[in-house]
Amino acid sequence: MSTSSLRRTDIDLLRAFAVLAVILFHFEVPGFDGGFLGVDIFFVISGYLITAHIREQLSDGTFTFSQFYARRIRRLMPALVAIFVITSITSLLVFPRDLLLDFAHSQLASALYVS
Questions:
Q1: 86 near 103, Cβ under 8 Å?
Q2: Distance (Å, rounded) from C-alpha 48 to C-alpha 110?
Q3: What CA–CA distance (Å, rounded) separates 82 from 88?
Q4: For residues 32 and 21, is the Cβ–Cβ distance under 8 A?
Q5: What is the spatial distance between Cα 10 and Cα 14, in angstroms, rounded to a whole number?
Q6: Nearest 5°: phi and psi at 64?
Q7: Model's pTM, two decimal places?
Q8: Residue 6: closest CA among 65, 53, 60
Q9: pLDDT for the residue numbered 4
Q10: Using CA atoms in the order 54, 115, 37, 74, what is the torsion angle rounded to 10 degrees?
């Protein structure tokens, strides 16, 4: 059995705590000022898991950049599209007309990964 198919409960718990810290920070719960630390922890864990997966594929001789990026796109694109659709609908319902153009520019910049 490959190491990537084994679940690590300790890592899952760390990720859950990191996400919870971010959520509690955004809801301004007293004592949870570590939302930024939660983001850092989540990214470090993600980097560790991705690197472990790449190392396994390199040792098997099955790693390719095209497959790596195709997996990333398949994993992240559905959530990105869902957020774009939800925020677009919400902005049409909530924002005054003069802010919609600013929102459209921001969303286009986000879609193109430019600031």
A1: no
A2: 26
A3: 10
A4: yes
A5: 6
A6: -140, 145
A7: 0.70
A8: 53
A9: 52
A10: -30
Given a contact cutoff of 8 angstroms between Cβ atoms, the answer to whether 35 and 25 are in contact is yes
- 76, 50 Cβ separation under 8 angstroms: no
In this predicted structure, what is the pLDDT of residue 3? 53
Which token pair is 5?
């198919």
Task: State how far the Cα of 103 lies from the Cα of 111, in Å rounded to an integer.
Answer: 12
Length of the chain in terms of residues written:
115
Residue found under tokens 């099955």: 62
pLDDT digits (tens, 9 = 90+) for 55-100: 999 999 999 999 999 999 999 999 999 999 999 999 999 999 999 9
User: What percent of the chain clears pLDDT 90, i.e. is strictly above it?
Assistant: 83
Q: How far apart are the first and last CA of the chain?
A: 43
Cβ count within 10 A of residue 84: 13
Residue carrying structure tokens 């040792």: 59
The predicted-structure confidence for 9-27, as pLDDT tens digits, reads as follows 999 999 999 999 999 999 9
Residue type, 34: G
